Amino acid sequence: MVRRGFFPGSFDPITNGHLDVIRAGLTVCDELIVGVGQNPNKTPTLPVEVRCALIERIARELPQGTERPATVRAVGFSGLLVKTAREMGANILLRGLRDGADFDYEMQMTGMNAAMEPELETIFVPARPANRHITATLVRQIAQMGGDISPFVPQAVAQALATTKSPS
Ligand code: PNS
After folding, report:
1. How far apart are CA 14 and CA 72, in angstroms?
2. Prediction pTM value
3. CA 53/CA 109 separation, integer angstroms
4. What residues form DSSP beta bridges with 77?
5. 101-108: long-range contacts at Cβ-Cβ below 8 A with a sequence spacing of 24 or more?
């Protein structure tokens, strides 16, 4: 059976913490699809196409295992994540965990998702200690205020945000 992982999130922008989840996903999945959620009520800092392109580029530059060349694709989605996961043929749902607050929320979401899509197995990836403080919300705020975000995100993201005019 092909182990196809689905890793949903906003990725506005993708951070070093997200990258840890992708890295871990590549060790357990044959294929990994990163789902970039589109919230019609929010104006993202980076358009969904840019977020997808950044994710695929950054994932391509990750060192790959020699035995199993897993692929990473990024797709935009809206609506229920389990519906997209099903349409994509995913059997593994990946989510990152940073702390207890994440855990409580993620456990609720996992229970609801499992009730809707029992075949989809959720796997949590704990944040590496070096990255557990990183949130995309704070990264956006620091970038908007002219701070240095390079410790928190891949270099390509720092460059993309430096040239992006953020929505007011
Ligand atoms: O990690 P994030 O950025 O908070 O991820 C947000 C995302 C896109 C995963 C979230 O908005 C989402 O789950 N959207 C899909 C809606 C859905 O499936 N809701 C029911 C969850 S039980």
Report:
1. 14
2. 0.94
3. 27
4. 37
5. none
Contact 63, 23 (CB under 8 A): no
The two three-digit tokens of residue 147, written as one number: 């701070």
Task: Please report, for residues 38, 96, 102, the alpha-carbon distance to residue 41 in angstroms, rounded to integers and kept in the order given.
Answer: 9, 24, 23
By DSSP bridging, strand 121-126 and strand 4-9 are unpaired
102-119 pLDDT tens trace: 999 999 999 999 999 999
Residue nearest ligand 1's atom 10 by CA:
9
Q: Are 6 and 85 in contact (CB under 8 A)?
A: yes
Pocket mutation for ligand 1, best pick of 81, 112, 137 (most atoms within 8 Å of C-beta)? 81
Identity at 106, one-letter amino acid code: E
**Does the Cβ of 9 fall within 6 Å of ligand 1?**
yes
The four Cα atoms 8, 12, 16, 21 give a dihedral, to 10 degrees, of 0
Q: Which atom of ligand 1 is nearest to the CA of 80?
A: 18
13 Cβ inside 6 Å of ligand 1: no
Residues 138-154, mean pLDDT to the nearest whole number: 96
Q: Which atom of ligand 1 is nearest to the CA of 82?
A: 18
